[in-house]
Amino acid sequence: MLSSKPKHCTSTQLEVIDDLHREEIEILNDFMRVLPNSDDDQIDEWLQRLEGQVLHHFNEEEACMKRVMCPGFKRHVDAHSETLKAIREARKNWDEERDLMQLWNFLEYDYMAWFEHHVRDYDLPAAEFIRQYEEGQ
Ligand SMILES: [Fe+2]
User: Fold this and answer.
1) Helix-strand-coil percent breakdown of the chain, rounded to 5?
2) What's the pLDDT tens digit per position in 22-73?
3) How many angstroms is it from 34 CA to the middle of ligand 1?
4) pTM, full prediction
């Protein structure tokens, strides 16, 4: 039985970014909850939904950083691109192999580990910079 504990996300103290993270974690939690009992078509739809949200999340976050000329912008965008690549790769593997365990492992471990590290190493400093910039306006 594939069981997954609901995931949470550290606050960046910046509402716009926290909202994006919350939406994504919500989709991920819902997906993980229904995953063991979903058919292939439903999983395809969930993966599409998740990828769409990830893309939206990255685009919005990058727009916020760009607006204030946030330091480390390029490095941050590169980290997003790498992750998007990993998600597309996982989706491709799922399309080709229909390996539920592999997909579950990717979402439960790889993606969540990325998320936690990324928030800590990239989003927290970016959010801090944006907040200080806005306070100075
Ligand atoms: Fe980010």
Assistant:
1) 80, 0, 20
2) 999 999 999 999 999 999 999 999 999 999 999 999 999 999 999 999 999 9
3) 27
4) 0.93
